[in-house]
Amino acid sequence: MNRLVALLIAAFALLPATTLAAPIPSPALSTILAPPPKTDYQEGSASNSTLLEGQFDAKTFVTKTRAPNADEVQQTLARDGFVDGYWRTWVEQGTQHVMVEIVIAFTGGDGAKRWLGASELADKADASYTKALTITGIDNYYGAHFVYAVNHSIGEEFAFVKGNDYFGVIFVSPKDDLATSTPAQATAQYKLAPDATIPKSQWPESITSSTAYQAGYLVGRIVFFVLIAAVILAVAGGVIWFSRRRRLVAVAPGAMAGAMPAATPAAAVQMSPDGAFWWDGQTWRDAQHEVPPMAQRSPDAAFWWDGQKWRPVS
Asked: What is the structure's pLDDT at 74?
């Protein structure tokens, strides 16, 4: 199977790339993502590297999603006609819901639809995938429901194509309470989205071979496994960001457990009652700006364990 995948990707790479200069999406992608459903959602900070926030190019996409086959994924995006991308992360403290919205502009509708197909195949192959979700009033879409095994956190996603643009609306919650939130937000996003951000008269003809099409699916399948994991990590990072702003102690335990392995015994970190400081044996140190050297780190070294929750490394 690995050899087959390698051959397909190799064949895919031999196809001629378009030499036309990429057009500029209009309106700008930053203006076409729907606002959150409630006013108590807070947007994540672009300075938090764990969040999906702001404009991205193909290289940033593979970096943020930590794609293990980054070169192939980046080539796939280029072959499909990637032009520009934008994503935003929102956190609702009360429900601990995290919402991620994504838009990717392609040079034409065919490229956007190929990416949608790759995404759907990947989601259905994910071990956390449980069922398809349906929605009315949107063409060229799919919906997916996920239950994460670690603590049964719930994820829901609707992805669709409108014109030359691919959209994704993703919610993650510590409990199964997303039945109305996700489809409602997807509908709002579909209605807000323009018919296209590149005029149809400028779309390139689709001359992709069936071999390249299959290779794109296989590459995409790997990409979107990683993307879902990145979304769960964004839940943890986003809730921590918002909690720290409001000087709260509790941080989305369900979402964090879905993103991080269970903490293993390590040297105990003594925290102050409000969680703002840790004791180094002689003095109290600011937990926001200094990491205890004895604290357990996450596999990517982006978080440390204070005995109750994961905290971002400043």
From this structure: 86
Q: Which spans in 132-268 are helix H?
A: 181-192, 210-245, 253-259
Where in the chain are the domains?
A: 2-238, 262-314
Contacts of 95 (CB under 8 A, 6+ apart): 173, 177
pTM of the model: 0.63
pLDDT in tens, 32-56: 999 999 999 999 888 887 789 999 9
C-alpha–C-alpha distance, residues 273 and 230, integer Å: 31
C-alpha angle with apex 173: 265 to 30, nearest 5 degrees? 115
> Which token pair is 233?
């990590």
Query: Pairing state of beta strands 97-106 and 129-133?
Result: unpaired
Place of tokens 């779309």: 203
CB 58 within 8 A of CB 207: no
Q: Does domain 2-238 have CATH number 3.30.1490?
A: no
CA distance to 68, 97, 193, 198, per residue, from 175 (Å): 30, 9, 29, 39
H-assigned helices in the chain: 2-13, 58-64, 70-80, 109-125, 181-192, 210-245, 253-259
Count the residues in the chain. Answer: 314
Query: Is the Cβ–Cβ distance between 103 and 84 less than 8 Å?
Result: no
